[in-house]
Amino acid sequence: MTGAALYDSVKTVNNTYRTALMNRRYYGYRLSVVKRRNTILEIVIAVGTSSAVGAWAIWKSTSIGANVWVVLAGLATLFAVVKPFLNLSKHVEKYSTLFVGHGDVYYDLKIILTELARVGDYTDKMHEAFGRALERIKQLAPEDDPKINEKLRRRCFEEVEKEIPVESLWWPT
Question: With a threshold of 0.90, does the pTM exceed it?
Answer without folding.
Answer: no
